[in-house]
Amino acid sequence: LQCKVKRFIYCGQLSNSVFYSLLLLLTKRYNTYLFFRRMAQQPGLPYLPAVDGLRAVAVLAVIIFHAGLELRGGFLGVESFFVISGFLITALLFVEWQQRGKIDLLAFWIRRARRLLPALLLLLAGLLAFAALLLPEELAELQIHSLAALAYVMNWFLIGNQQSYFDPTLRPPLLQHLWSLAVEEQFYLVWPLLFGLGMALLRWRGVLLATLLLAASSAFAMAWFYQPGADPSRLYYGTDTRAAGLLLGAALALVWLPGQVPMAHSRRLGQVLDGAALLAMGGLLACFVVLHEFHPQLYRGGFGLVALLTAVLIAASSHPQARLTSAVLGWEPLRWIGLRAYGLYLWHWPVFLLAQTFVDPASAGWATLLAQLALVLLLTEASYRMVELPFRQAGTTSGWQVARQRARAALQALAPVAVTRPHVVPLPSALRHVPTLSPEMFNAEAQRRRAAEVKSS
Description:
There is one protein chain. The protein is globular and about 55 Å long. Helix 4 (49-66) runs antiparallel to helix 14 and helix 10 packs antiparallel against helix 12 (239-255). With 457 residues, the chain is mainly α. It is built from 20 helices and no strands.
Protein backbone atom coordinates (compact mmCIF):
# COMPACT_ATOMS: atom_id res chain seq x y z
CA LEU A 1 0.00 0.00 0.00
CA GLN A 2 2.85 2.34 0.80
CA CYS A 3 4.41 1.74 -2.63
CA LYS A 4 1.06 2.37 -4.31
CA VAL A 5 0.66 5.66 -2.45
CA LYS A 6 4.15 6.70 -3.54
CA ARG A 7 3.42 5.74 -7.12
CA PHE A 8 0.17 7.74 -7.08
CA ILE A 9 2.06 10.77 -5.73
CA TYR A 10 4.79 10.61 -8.35
CA CYS A 11 2.30 10.15 -11.16
CA GLY A 12 0.30 13.18 -10.01
CA GLN A 13 -2.88 11.15 -9.54
CA LEU A 14 -3.50 12.53 -6.05
CA SER A 15 -4.26 16.18 -6.72
CA ASN A 16 -6.19 16.82 -3.53
CA SER A 17 -3.65 17.46 -0.77
CA VAL A 18 -6.15 16.82 2.05
CA PHE A 19 -7.10 13.39 0.70
CA TYR A 20 -3.41 12.70 0.13
CA SER A 21 -2.51 13.48 3.72
CA LEU A 22 -5.33 11.37 5.17
CA LEU A 23 -4.35 8.41 3.00
CA LEU A 24 -0.75 8.63 4.12
CA LEU A 25 -1.75 8.74 7.77
CA LEU A 26 -4.04 5.74 7.30
CA THR A 27 -1.15 3.65 5.98
CA LYS A 28 0.61 4.14 9.35
CA ARG A 29 3.85 4.24 7.38
CA TYR A 30 4.30 8.02 7.45
CA ASN A 31 4.04 10.04 10.63
CA THR A 32 2.78 13.56 11.14
CA TYR A 33 6.25 14.95 10.60
CA LEU A 34 6.35 13.74 7.00
CA PHE A 35 2.84 15.01 6.46
CA PHE A 36 3.74 18.56 7.43
CA ARG A 37 7.06 18.40 5.57
CA ARG A 38 5.13 17.50 2.41
CA MET A 39 2.56 20.24 3.01
CA ALA A 40 5.28 22.80 3.72
CA GLN A 41 7.09 22.40 0.40
CA GLN A 42 6.80 25.55 -1.67
CA PRO A 43 7.69 26.62 -5.18
CA GLY A 44 11.12 28.18 -5.26
CA LEU A 45 12.12 31.77 -5.95
CA PRO A 46 15.68 32.99 -6.42
CA TYR A 47 17.08 34.61 -3.31
CA LEU A 48 17.17 38.42 -3.56
CA PRO A 49 19.66 39.86 -1.03
CA ALA A 50 18.78 43.43 -1.98
CA VAL A 51 15.15 42.87 -0.96
CA ASP A 52 16.37 41.90 2.50
CA GLY A 53 18.37 45.13 2.51
CA LEU A 54 15.20 47.04 1.63
CA ARG A 55 13.48 45.30 4.54
CA ALA A 56 16.28 46.56 6.77
CA VAL A 57 15.75 50.16 5.61
CA ALA A 58 12.01 49.84 6.36
CA VAL A 59 12.38 48.34 9.83
CA LEU A 60 15.14 50.79 10.80
CA ALA A 61 12.86 53.69 9.84
CA VAL A 62 10.08 52.28 12.05
CA ILE A 63 12.44 51.71 14.99
CA ILE A 64 13.91 55.21 14.75
CA PHE A 65 10.39 56.67 14.66
CA HIS A 66 9.25 54.70 17.71
CA ALA A 67 12.45 55.61 19.56
CA GLY A 68 11.35 59.24 19.44
CA LEU A 69 14.19 60.43 17.24
CA GLU A 70 13.87 63.05 14.51
CA LEU A 71 12.35 60.95 11.74
CA ARG A 72 8.76 62.09 11.58
CA GLY A 73 7.76 59.79 8.74
CA GLY A 74 9.55 56.66 9.92
CA PHE A 75 6.21 54.91 10.37
CA LEU A 76 6.00 54.80 6.55
CA GLY A 77 8.43 51.90 6.67
CA VAL A 78 5.33 49.77 7.28
CA GLU A 79 4.04 50.76 3.84
CA SER A 80 7.29 49.51 2.33
CA PHE A 81 6.77 46.25 4.22
CA PHE A 82 3.32 45.92 2.66
CA VAL A 83 4.68 46.32 -0.87
CA ILE A 84 7.45 43.78 -0.25
CA SER A 85 5.01 41.28 1.23
CA GLY A 86 2.52 41.67 -1.61
CA PHE A 87 5.29 41.22 -4.16
CA LEU A 88 6.85 38.10 -2.63
CA ILE A 89 3.58 36.36 -1.78
CA THR A 90 2.13 36.92 -5.24
CA ALA A 91 5.40 35.81 -6.85
CA LEU A 92 5.19 32.52 -4.94
CA LEU A 93 1.56 32.05 -5.95
CA PHE A 94 2.34 32.88 -9.59
CA VAL A 95 5.23 30.40 -9.72
CA GLU A 96 3.05 27.70 -8.18
CA TRP A 97 0.35 28.40 -10.77
CA GLN A 98 2.90 28.16 -13.57
CA GLN A 99 4.25 24.84 -12.27
CA ARG A 100 1.03 23.12 -11.16
CA GLY A 101 -1.84 25.01 -12.74
CA LYS A 102 -3.49 25.47 -9.32
CA ILE A 103 -2.93 26.93 -5.85
CA ASP A 104 -2.66 24.56 -2.88
CA LEU A 105 -4.38 26.79 -0.33
CA LEU A 106 -3.82 24.54 2.68
CA ALA A 107 -0.10 24.24 1.99
CA PHE A 108 0.16 28.00 1.48
CA TRP A 109 -1.53 28.78 4.80
CA ILE A 110 0.62 26.21 6.61
CA ARG A 111 3.75 27.88 5.24
CA ARG A 112 2.53 31.28 6.41
CA ALA A 113 1.74 29.89 9.86
CA ARG A 114 5.21 28.35 10.13
CA ARG A 115 6.77 31.64 9.11
CA LEU A 116 4.82 33.96 11.42
CA LEU A 117 3.21 32.11 14.33
CA PRO A 118 6.21 30.71 16.30
CA ALA A 119 7.87 34.09 16.86
CA LEU A 120 4.51 35.69 17.65
CA LEU A 121 3.70 33.00 20.21
CA LEU A 122 7.09 33.53 21.84
CA LEU A 123 6.46 37.29 22.05
CA LEU A 124 2.99 36.85 23.57
CA ALA A 125 4.20 34.25 26.09
CA GLY A 126 7.10 36.46 27.14
CA LEU A 127 4.94 39.56 27.58
CA LEU A 128 2.24 37.69 29.49
CA ALA A 129 4.84 36.20 31.84
CA PHE A 130 6.46 39.62 32.34
CA ALA A 131 3.11 41.26 33.06
CA ALA A 132 2.11 38.52 35.50
CA LEU A 133 5.31 39.08 37.49
CA LEU A 134 5.86 42.84 37.32
CA LEU A 135 2.74 44.49 35.88
CA PRO A 136 -0.26 42.53 37.20
CA GLU A 137 -2.57 45.52 36.73
CA GLU A 138 -2.08 45.28 32.95
CA LEU A 139 -2.41 41.51 32.68
CA ALA A 140 -6.17 41.41 31.98
CA GLU A 141 -5.94 43.95 29.16
CA LEU A 142 -2.89 42.21 27.73
CA GLN A 143 -4.72 38.89 27.64
CA ILE A 144 -7.54 40.40 25.59
CA HIS A 145 -5.07 42.04 23.23
CA SER A 146 -3.20 38.74 22.87
CA LEU A 147 -6.37 37.02 21.69
CA ALA A 148 -6.91 39.77 19.11
CA ALA A 149 -3.27 39.39 18.01
CA LEU A 150 -3.56 35.61 17.66
CA ALA A 151 -6.75 35.99 15.61
CA TYR A 152 -4.94 38.61 13.46
CA VAL A 153 -7.70 41.18 13.94
CA MET A 154 -5.72 43.68 16.01
CA ASN A 155 -6.30 46.50 13.53
CA TRP A 156 -10.09 46.15 13.71
CA PHE A 157 -9.90 45.68 17.49
CA LEU A 158 -8.08 49.02 17.80
CA ILE A 159 -10.59 50.67 15.46
CA GLY A 160 -13.50 49.31 17.50
CA ASN A 161 -11.93 50.65 20.72
CA GLN A 162 -11.18 54.00 19.02
CA GLN A 163 -7.51 53.65 19.95
CA SER A 164 -5.58 56.50 18.37
CA TYR A 165 -2.21 55.72 16.84
CA PHE A 166 -1.04 59.33 16.89
CA ASP A 167 -2.33 60.87 20.15
CA PRO A 168 0.78 61.48 22.33
CA THR A 169 -1.31 61.94 25.49
CA LEU A 170 -2.51 58.31 25.47
CA ARG A 171 -0.41 55.36 26.59
CA PRO A 172 -0.56 52.92 23.66
CA PRO A 173 -1.12 49.18 24.21
CA LEU A 174 1.84 46.83 24.33
CA LEU A 175 0.60 45.02 21.23
CA GLN A 176 -0.56 48.02 19.23
CA HIS A 177 2.16 47.48 16.61
CA LEU A 178 0.64 44.13 15.65
CA TRP A 179 -2.06 45.94 13.66
CA SER A 180 0.18 45.72 10.58
CA LEU A 181 0.59 41.96 10.97
CA ALA A 182 -3.20 41.70 11.12
CA VAL A 183 -3.51 43.56 7.80
CA GLU A 184 -0.95 41.26 6.18
CA GLU A 185 -2.53 38.07 7.52
CA GLN A 186 -5.96 39.12 6.31
CA PHE A 187 -4.38 39.66 2.90
CA TYR A 188 -2.74 36.22 3.07
CA LEU A 189 -6.09 34.66 3.88
CA VAL A 190 -8.10 36.25 1.07
CA TRP A 191 -5.60 36.94 -1.71
CA PRO A 192 -4.71 33.31 -2.62
CA LEU A 193 -8.42 32.60 -3.08
CA LEU A 194 -8.91 35.63 -5.31
CA PHE A 195 -5.69 34.96 -7.19
CA GLY A 196 -6.53 31.33 -7.96
CA LEU A 197 -10.08 32.19 -8.97
CA GLY A 198 -8.90 35.10 -11.10
CA MET A 199 -6.23 33.07 -12.89
CA ALA A 200 -8.80 30.39 -13.68
CA LEU A 201 -11.44 32.82 -14.99
CA LEU A 202 -9.68 36.00 -16.07
CA ARG A 203 -6.19 34.73 -16.90
CA TRP A 204 -3.04 36.75 -16.33
CA ARG A 205 -4.07 40.00 -18.01
CA GLY A 206 -7.43 40.11 -16.24
CA VAL A 207 -5.85 39.45 -12.83
CA LEU A 208 -3.33 42.24 -13.41
CA LEU A 209 -6.03 44.71 -14.37
CA ALA A 210 -8.24 43.71 -11.43
CA THR A 211 -5.31 44.04 -9.02
CA LEU A 212 -4.51 47.56 -10.23
CA LEU A 213 -8.18 48.55 -9.97
CA LEU A 214 -8.38 47.25 -6.39
CA ALA A 215 -5.20 49.11 -5.45
CA ALA A 216 -6.55 52.34 -6.95
CA SER A 217 -9.87 51.84 -5.13
CA SER A 218 -8.10 51.44 -1.79
CA ALA A 219 -6.03 54.60 -2.33
CA PHE A 220 -9.14 56.48 -3.45
CA ALA A 221 -11.04 55.38 -0.34
CA MET A 222 -8.28 56.73 1.91
CA ALA A 223 -8.27 60.10 0.11
CA TRP A 224 -12.08 60.29 0.06
CA PHE A 225 -12.64 59.61 3.76
CA TYR A 226 -9.73 61.72 5.01
CA GLN A 227 -10.87 64.76 7.00
CA PRO A 228 -8.25 67.42 7.75
CA GLY A 229 -7.98 68.09 11.46
CA ALA A 230 -9.59 64.80 12.48
CA ASP A 231 -7.76 61.80 13.88
CA PRO A 232 -6.78 59.64 10.87
CA SER A 233 -6.28 56.42 12.89
CA ARG A 234 -9.25 54.70 11.22
CA LEU A 235 -7.67 55.24 7.81
CA TYR A 236 -4.28 54.23 9.13
CA TYR A 237 -5.44 50.93 10.67
CA GLY A 238 -8.04 49.82 8.15
CA THR A 239 -7.38 46.90 5.84
CA ASP A 240 -9.58 48.49 3.20
CA THR A 241 -7.58 51.73 3.18
CA ARG A 242 -4.13 50.15 3.55
CA ALA A 243 -4.45 47.37 0.98
CA ALA A 244 -3.08 49.56 -1.83
CA GLY A 245 0.56 48.84 -0.92
CA LEU A 246 -0.01 45.08 -0.80
CA LEU A 247 -1.88 45.11 -4.11
CA LEU A 248 0.71 47.28 -5.82
CA GLY A 249 3.38 44.77 -4.82
CA ALA A 250 1.14 42.00 -6.14
CA ALA A 251 0.74 43.77 -9.48
CA LEU A 252 4.51 44.18 -9.72
CA ALA A 253 5.01 40.43 -9.21
CA LEU A 254 2.66 39.70 -12.12
CA VAL A 255 4.83 41.66 -14.56
CA TRP A 256 8.25 41.38 -12.91
CA LEU A 257 8.56 37.83 -11.59
CA PRO A 258 11.94 37.09 -9.95
CA GLY A 259 13.97 34.79 -12.18
CA GLN A 260 11.78 35.68 -15.17
CA VAL A 261 12.29 39.43 -15.43
CA PRO A 262 12.26 40.87 -18.97
CA MET A 263 15.60 41.58 -20.63
CA ALA A 264 17.48 39.82 -17.85
CA HIS A 265 20.80 40.06 -19.76
CA SER A 266 20.51 43.72 -20.72
CA ARG A 267 23.20 45.77 -19.01
CA ARG A 268 21.65 48.98 -20.30
CA LEU A 269 18.35 48.15 -18.60
CA GLY A 270 20.30 47.32 -15.43
CA GLN A 271 21.96 50.73 -15.53
CA VAL A 272 18.61 52.44 -16.04
CA LEU A 273 17.18 50.54 -13.08
CA ASP A 274 20.19 51.47 -10.94
CA GLY A 275 19.59 55.14 -11.73
CA ALA A 276 15.87 54.81 -11.00
CA ALA A 277 16.63 53.00 -7.75
CA LEU A 278 19.00 55.76 -6.67
CA LEU A 279 16.29 58.38 -7.24
CA ALA A 280 13.67 56.16 -5.56
CA MET A 281 15.84 55.68 -2.48
CA GLY A 282 16.38 59.42 -2.22
CA GLY A 283 12.64 60.00 -2.56
CA LEU A 284 11.83 57.33 0.01
CA LEU A 285 14.22 58.80 2.57
CA ALA A 286 12.77 62.26 1.87
CA CYS A 287 9.28 60.88 2.61
CA PHE A 288 10.56 59.45 5.89
CA VAL A 289 11.79 62.91 6.85
CA VAL A 290 9.04 65.19 5.50
CA LEU A 291 5.72 63.30 5.68
CA HIS A 292 4.51 63.34 9.28
CA GLU A 293 1.35 61.62 10.48
CA PHE A 294 -0.91 64.71 10.09
CA HIS A 295 0.48 65.89 6.76
CA PRO A 296 -2.56 66.54 4.51
CA GLN A 297 -0.86 65.02 1.45
CA LEU A 298 -0.01 61.80 3.27
CA TYR A 299 -3.56 60.48 2.92
CA ARG A 300 -4.05 62.00 -0.53
CA GLY A 301 -1.32 60.22 -2.37
CA GLY A 302 1.53 60.13 0.14
CA PHE A 303 1.12 56.45 0.96
CA GLY A 304 0.80 55.70 -2.75
CA LEU A 305 4.02 57.59 -3.47
CA VAL A 306 5.90 55.57 -0.83
CA ALA A 307 4.49 52.36 -2.32
CA LEU A 308 5.56 53.35 -5.85
CA LEU A 309 9.09 54.26 -4.72
CA THR A 310 9.34 50.93 -2.91
CA ALA A 311 8.12 49.09 -6.03
CA VAL A 312 10.88 50.75 -8.08
CA LEU A 313 13.47 49.59 -5.56
CA ILE A 314 12.07 46.05 -5.64
CA ALA A 315 12.16 46.00 -9.44
CA ALA A 316 15.82 47.06 -9.43
CA SER A 317 16.63 44.57 -6.67
CA SER A 318 15.11 41.74 -8.75
CA HIS A 319 17.02 42.43 -11.96
CA PRO A 320 20.35 40.56 -12.27
CA GLN A 321 22.03 43.43 -14.17
CA ALA A 322 21.17 46.16 -11.64
CA ARG A 323 24.48 45.60 -9.92
CA LEU A 324 24.74 48.88 -8.03
CA THR A 325 21.36 48.31 -6.34
CA SER A 326 22.33 44.74 -5.44
CA ALA A 327 25.68 45.90 -4.05
CA VAL A 328 24.21 48.71 -1.92
CA LEU A 329 21.03 47.07 -0.61
CA GLY A 330 22.69 43.65 -0.50
CA TRP A 331 25.41 44.98 1.82
CA GLU A 332 26.00 42.34 4.50
CA PRO A 333 25.00 44.43 7.57
CA LEU A 334 21.78 45.50 5.87
CA ARG A 335 21.05 41.96 4.80
CA TRP A 336 21.68 40.74 8.36
CA ILE A 337 19.13 43.21 9.69
CA GLY A 338 16.68 42.41 6.91
CA LEU A 339 16.72 38.70 7.68
CA ARG A 340 15.73 39.57 11.26
CA ALA A 341 13.31 42.36 10.36
CA TYR A 342 10.27 40.39 11.55
CA GLY A 343 11.73 39.77 15.00
CA LEU A 344 13.01 43.35 15.27
CA TYR A 345 9.54 44.64 14.48
CA LEU A 346 7.93 42.31 17.02
CA TRP A 347 10.23 43.09 19.94
CA HIS A 348 11.21 46.75 19.59
CA TRP A 349 7.82 48.26 20.44
CA PRO A 350 7.15 46.44 23.75
CA VAL A 351 10.77 46.98 24.85
CA PHE A 352 10.55 50.72 24.19
CA LEU A 353 7.15 50.95 25.87
CA LEU A 354 8.08 48.93 28.95
CA ALA A 355 11.26 50.96 29.38
CA GLN A 356 9.08 54.06 29.85
CA THR A 357 7.37 52.29 32.75
CA PHE A 358 10.61 51.92 34.69
CA VAL A 359 12.64 54.88 33.38
CA ASP A 360 11.41 58.45 33.18
CA PRO A 361 11.49 59.37 29.46
CA ALA A 362 12.44 62.95 30.36
CA SER A 363 15.63 61.80 32.08
CA ALA A 364 16.47 59.02 29.63
CA GLY A 365 19.52 59.63 27.49
CA TRP A 366 21.56 57.89 24.84
CA ALA A 367 22.75 55.27 27.31
CA THR A 368 19.15 54.21 27.99
CA LEU A 369 18.35 54.06 24.28
CA LEU A 370 21.45 52.00 23.54
CA ALA A 371 20.52 49.60 26.35
CA GLN A 372 17.03 49.21 24.88
CA LEU A 373 18.42 48.56 21.41
CA ALA A 374 20.85 46.00 22.82
CA LEU A 375 17.97 44.20 24.53
CA VAL A 376 15.92 44.27 21.31
CA LEU A 377 18.83 42.76 19.37
CA LEU A 378 19.34 40.07 22.01
CA LEU A 379 15.69 39.05 22.05
CA THR A 380 15.50 39.16 18.25
CA GLU A 381 18.58 37.00 17.77
CA ALA A 382 17.36 34.46 20.34
CA SER A 383 13.98 34.28 18.59
CA TYR A 384 15.61 34.03 15.15
CA ARG A 385 18.06 31.28 16.09
CA MET A 386 15.96 29.17 18.43
CA VAL A 387 12.42 29.65 17.10
CA GLU A 388 12.16 31.14 13.60
CA LEU A 389 14.90 29.20 11.82
CA PRO A 390 13.95 25.74 13.18
CA PHE A 391 10.37 26.12 11.96
CA ARG A 392 11.40 27.71 8.68
CA GLN A 393 13.97 25.06 7.78
CA ALA A 394 12.09 21.99 9.03
CA GLY A 395 8.56 20.68 9.25
CA THR A 396 6.22 21.63 12.06
CA THR A 397 6.90 18.59 14.25
CA SER A 398 10.61 18.77 13.50
CA GLY A 399 10.56 22.50 14.18
CA TRP A 400 9.40 21.94 17.75
CA GLN A 401 12.13 19.34 18.23
CA VAL A 402 14.88 21.59 16.86
CA ALA A 403 13.64 24.55 18.89
CA ARG A 404 13.71 22.47 22.09
CA GLN A 405 17.18 21.20 21.27
CA ARG A 406 18.53 24.70 20.67
CA ALA A 407 16.90 26.05 23.82
CA ARG A 408 18.35 23.15 25.82
CA ALA A 409 21.78 23.77 24.31
CA ALA A 410 21.59 27.44 25.24
CA LEU A 411 20.62 26.60 28.82
CA GLN A 412 23.42 24.07 29.06
CA ALA A 413 25.87 26.66 27.80
CA LEU A 414 24.69 29.09 30.48
CA ALA A 415 24.49 26.51 33.26
CA PRO A 416 28.25 26.25 33.92
CA VAL A 417 28.37 30.01 34.36
CA ALA A 418 25.70 29.78 37.03
CA VAL A 419 27.17 26.86 38.97
CA THR A 420 30.90 27.39 38.52
CA ARG A 421 32.64 28.20 41.79
CA PRO A 422 34.04 31.71 42.07
CA HIS A 423 37.59 32.20 40.90
CA VAL A 424 39.99 32.14 43.85
CA VAL A 425 42.44 35.00 43.83
CA PRO A 426 45.93 33.83 45.00
CA LEU A 427 47.02 35.20 48.35
CA PRO A 428 50.09 37.35 48.62
CA SER A 429 53.26 35.42 49.38
CA ALA A 430 53.47 36.93 52.89
CA LEU A 431 50.14 35.36 53.79
CA ARG A 432 50.64 31.97 52.18
CA HIS A 433 52.45 30.55 55.23
CA VAL A 434 49.87 31.61 57.80
CA PRO A 435 48.82 28.39 59.58
CA THR A 436 45.25 27.30 59.13
CA LEU A 437 43.10 25.18 61.41
CA SER A 438 42.16 21.68 60.32
CA PRO A 439 38.73 20.37 61.41
CA GLU A 440 40.35 18.37 64.25
CA MET A 441 42.29 21.38 65.51
CA PHE A 442 39.14 23.52 65.26
CA ASN A 443 37.12 21.06 67.40
CA ALA A 444 39.85 20.82 70.03
CA GLU A 445 40.10 24.60 70.23
CA ALA A 446 36.31 24.90 70.62
CA GLN A 447 36.29 22.32 73.47
CA ARG A 448 39.13 24.15 75.24
CA ARG A 449 37.24 27.45 75.09
CA ARG A 450 34.02 25.89 76.39
CA ALA A 451 35.93 24.32 79.31
CA ALA A 452 37.51 27.69 80.17
CA GLU A 453 34.08 29.38 80.11
CA VAL A 454 32.60 26.73 82.47
CA LYS A 455 35.55 27.03 84.85
CA SER A 456 35.31 30.83 84.94
CA SER A 457 31.58 30.67 85.56
